[in-house]
Hints:
Blueprint: H1 4-13, H2 20-27, H3 34-49, E1 52-62, H4 91-103, E2 108-113, H5 121-137, E3 141-145, H6 151-160, E4 164-166, H7 176-179, H8 185-197, E5 201-203, E6 206-208, H9 214-227, E7 231-236, H10 253-266, E8 271-274, H11 278-282, E9 296-298, H12 310-319, E10 323-324
Parallel strand pairs: 1-2, 1-9, 1-10, 2-3, 3-4, 4-5, 6-7, 7-8, 8-9
This protein binds iron/sulfur cluster.
Iron/sulfur cluster is lined by residues 66, 68, 70, 73, 75-76, 114-116.
Amino acid sequence: MKNILEIALSKGMAGIGLNAEEAREFAQLPEEQLTEILSVTERIRRKFKGDEVDLCAITSAKTGLCAEDCSFCSQSVNYATDIRSHTMLEADEIIENAKEAQASGAREFSIVTSGTKIEKERDIEKLIDALKGMKGSVQVERCASLGNLTPETMHRLKKAGLESYHHNLETSRSYFPKICTTHRYEEDVTVVRNAKEAGFYVCSGGIFGIGESWDDRIELAETLAELGVDSVPINFLNPRPGTPLEHSENLTPRECLKIIALYRLMMPKTDIVVCGGRDLNLRDLQSMLFCAGANGMMIGNYLTTPGRKPEDDLNMIKDLGLKPKAH
Ligand code: SF4
């Protein structure tokens, strides 16, 4: 009888993800088997993603001032954090940030705003102006993470040049009420569905290290696979002072790698992009994230915390014999 890694390899190379039962068996593998796990995930990543690394960068176009209570987030008005809040940036500031992102090596650039939706028509107009301006002056793929937009607003933004839409589910449906009480999981699922229906390339993933179990990680992967998302951003908690999770212990680098591997094995063909909390949680093992199955990462600063110098990341990619995906 085949063991779980043999099953994972044969299914993965055929583009078929592990089911939940198999994933639970995978989750029980001891960390001593990490090298064997990574040899499987590396082969699957190479088969579907080759030697290309997708690099994305973001700008926080509206920061803080959010009425939601996500327990990991320093942008919530419910917590006393040191976040420097600001209302929506002007279109030309967003375009400048996109240019900087391109210069730092990013292929994709996302405009991210705090809160569950954009309330003001004036802010939508700024975003439309920014997208139109980017179209003429920057080569980056245009992505946005703007919360719960109506399908009509999504279509307006698409017409202005938006290509990808990002909206994280954050964690499993079962665990979500433990980290957010101000909106329902289904609202986030609806955003992802609407973005798919609008024809965007859709990025949706979660944050790990917030007290979730392996069952929650598996449940989230199942939900994302069912929704047919195109890319899964994986974030690791960077505990922010003032938030309810400020005293959480970081995951170990090896557990982070195993989480990335789980997603590659459950979603063999999907893009997997490691984002916030990468250097803090993976530390010296971060170059192994590609062996674990990721084919992309965020470059530059994260949403509310600083990242590594872009040139260090570009050197790491080169040293690994990989190359940034072209524009
Ligand atoms: S994660 Fe988003 S919705 Fe939740 S508190 Fe932070 S900004 Fe608000």
